[in-house]
Amino acid sequence: MHPRGKFLAGHLSAFCITPTTTALISRNHSDWAHLQLLRRTPSSDAGNMNQIHFGTASARRRNAMILENNSGDEDAPKQGFLANLRLALFHLVLIFATVAYIIAGAYLFTKIEHQAELDRYQSYHTIYRNFINNLYQSSNRSVADVENLIDTFTSINFRAFKEGLKPTDFLVPQETSRWSMISAIFFTTTVLTSIGYGNLIPISTGGKIFCVGYAIFGIPLTLVTIADLAKFVADMLIMDPTEDPKTGRQLLVLVFLLGYMTISACVYTILEPMWSFLDSFYFCLVSLLTVGFGDLHPVGTVEYMLCSIVFIFIGLILTTLAVDVSGSVGIAKMHSIGRGFDAMKMLNALRVRKSEFVAKGAVSLSAAARVAGRRLDGQQPHQPRWFAYVPKDALTIPYIDESANVSSRTTTTTHTSI
Amino acid sequence: MTSSSRGYQRVDSSGDGGSLLMEEEGDNPHEALLHRNNDDYASTYHHVGVEYDSYEELERHEMDDRVTEIPEGFHRRQRRNLIYGDDVATDEELRVLRREALFGEEVTRAGLGRAEYYEDSHLIHSCDKSGHEDIDDESDDESKDEDEEEEETGIRKFAKLVLPHVALVLLTCTYTVIGALIFYSVEQPHEQMMKEQQLKLIYTRQNEFVDDLIRLAAGNETKRYEWESLAERHMHNMSDQLFVAFEKYFLTSNEVKKNAATETWTFSSSIFFAVTVVTTIGYGNPVPVTNIGRIWCILFSLLGIPLTLVTIADLGKFLSEHLVWLYGNYLKLKYLILSRHRKERREHVCEHCHSHGMGHDMNIEEKRIPAFLVLAILIVYTAFGGVLMSKLEPWSFFTSFYWSFITMTTVGFGDLMPRRDGYMYIILLYIILGLAITTMCIDLVGVQYIRKIHYFGRKIQDARSALAVVGGKVVLVSELYANLMQKRARNMSREAFIVENLYVSKHIIPFIPTDIRCIRYIDQTADAATISTSSSAIDMQSCRFCHSRYSLNRAFK
């Protein structure tokens, strides 16, 4: 890329760049030629204030080159599928990166925790068998001794429960762990979305260390992906770009979120035999607000768990949408309470007084600020100076009325970058 | 330090982003909208180029362009005459007079006025399109507010600034305490009843176990198989019952041994539970199990979570403002230290700008908080939490750090729970401050990345959603303008206004190359003969603020 093209691309990153500009930038034209393309139609005189046009043969040749390039590019415009694919490509890559991160993390968690879990099963099973031996050897002892042994058994049970084991895990020898691939995927999903049910958690030190590092990088990635998708949904809601964001849309988003929760609660009531509708709605609300108590959580087949994960992601997108539509405005207003000015009043005041400025013919930024603020009366703020772009070889380009003196311009110019 | 020496160095997007943006093509659904808003300055850059039907039209267009060229030159020369007297060369004056005779003074003045109007109306139009309602009552209220503000003293201003935020914090605390009271009154009786019931069941099975063992011992049975099968059956039953008591009713080992139920839902633990609900941490230990408790939890969450998040976000914004202020002071200090080694290359200010209060020592830098600094603050605070909890609880440092991290990210597994007694309020204060710091990190770093990613590869619909990169943050132009007005109103200093104004206007004018100072104006050929051709002389010819040219021997240092 031409060095100037980098600045041009950076400066215009928020605006439209057409194929013609792209073609010209790739041909390493000078800066002056770039700005030629960005000029407005000849009917608008104000748009030409930043351009100096030279009526010479060299300028005419440049314009001819531009015309040729324009006519050439218009013959083969790229439309439709390719543009949409390029638009969606980065966002799809972001989604795939998040999904891949979740699956890779789940795989590593199974690797770390599976063996630790089996070791834990074996150790508690050994303790259990030793307890039975002690019980047999004390067959002739008194009732008090038996009760002490039972208290010891109770302590062993509670210690095992705290480490995530269940009675069936250590009373009978087990060959499989609860950290299956689908369980680990569910766990990583709830970690990255910061729900955190806590029914399946890493116990070993290695698992905890990996969980901290995994969450540091994964939570921002997931939040950015969900926020990105939420903005797409927000764009779909805006039918008219010039429509004001009103209260109706905020209520619509909230009603949509509650409706989604209600429908999901009905589905869970059907699928989970032990849950009532209140339990299902309670679970959906606790999940989508990312509280995540963990007293109620889905358990079932692989397809069922995957559907639960999709439910969580879609719900979080709606929750983020609600926060984006309603919450941001509230936070901004709340924070600006007690400040010097209310931004809304300032903008309204500016619009009210705009007609006065136009009538007086003194519309300028400083004048508008002075009248709206009413604090700089009598002061003359410095007027910003607008100046035109002059190309590097300006001295070598003669005026129309200086063609007779061309031979006298033999001085060379020295241009040094700072 | 190159960017700081230039003063107005703009933060561009990454090169890869730029390349991909330039590769973007074609079918724009909002193109009609762009063409509809011809006054919008965003459409200035949308035009694909000029097309001429014939050379005659080309010639006419070239003649029209001279209208904007002569006013600029004429205006500059008049300013030069006012500042430097009659030092301008004679042939330059003749050239000006010739152009004036050719096109007339009316065209010159009209062109200048039109250009100025065009530039300033852009920003007002962009604010106009932000969609705020135009109500006459608003202007009346605005005038009234201004009258009141002039009469307020400093103390009243400070109180007006602080009191709403303090009221918000108190409202959140009151809401949490009331919620905790309701949870306590609903769940505590039910919890006692269920716990006593569970203890009764456990001791029934325990007594059956003991009786069977005693009966076998009395019978003098010596078969090991019968012993083991009996023991296993009873131990299975007891384990199942203990697990239910542990998982659902949160009984502990001590309670089972002493056969006495202690309160889980105390008032302190209710407050702790309420705080973990509204902050979406959600340890899940304990949880409401009654229907009334769950219904109240649903209502409490729906109202409390937005209220608490707004409060914490409000505190987070204060923290981010203080961090920006501290980082700005750090940059100033660094600039002062480094400027001692660059005295020879100090920039110069022309007389006009100097008379308006802008000296050569004025430093303008963009305060962009680096992402690693924000991440470091987060990790240091988590480590501090690790140290704090390792002293309050019998945990190791890593366990405390792990708990602190899980809490700050609001994951909240619930496997590690602090005791809820006298030290609970210190822990709650740590949690809330940690969440405010997390919000600060998102506010400083996260928002700009989300916006950049979302608008990647897309076209902006209109000026209302036009973006500008200011201070490392991606903001809407309308928001930028509103914030600018707020800053100007808050800071009465003229310097701040002028600097901010120049700063904003720089993002609206078209491309300016980095070597603008080395490019001479057409009308400065005579001055070049009187100035040496060394690079330092050319470097010092331009004013750092308005980029106008002046002679070296008239510079103000």
From TrEMBL, chain A:
Keyword annotations from UniProtKB, A to Z: Ion channel, Ion transport, Membrane, Transmembrane, Transmembrane helix, Transport
InterPro entries: 2pore_dom_K_chnl, K_chnl_dom
Pfam families in alphabetical order: Ion_trans_2
Source species of the chain: Caenorhabditis elegans
Membrane topology label: Multi-pass membrane protein
GO cellular component entries: plasma membrane
Predominant localisation class: membrane
Gene: twk-4
Cellular localization per UniProt: Membrane
Lineage, uppermost ranks: Eukaryota, Metazoa, Ecdysozoa, Nematoda, Chromadorea
Transmembrane segments: 88-110, 179-201, 207-230, 251-271, 277-297, 304-323
Annotated SUPFAM superfamilies: Voltage-gated potassium channels (SSF81324)
Lineage: superkingdom: Eukaryota
Domain Potassium channel residues, every copy: 176-233, 256-328
One BP term from GO: potassium ion transmembrane transport
Protein name: Potassium channel domain-containing protein
Family (UniProt): Belongs to the two pore domain potassium channel (TC 1.A.1.8) family.
Molecular-function GO term, any one: outward rectifier potassium channel activity
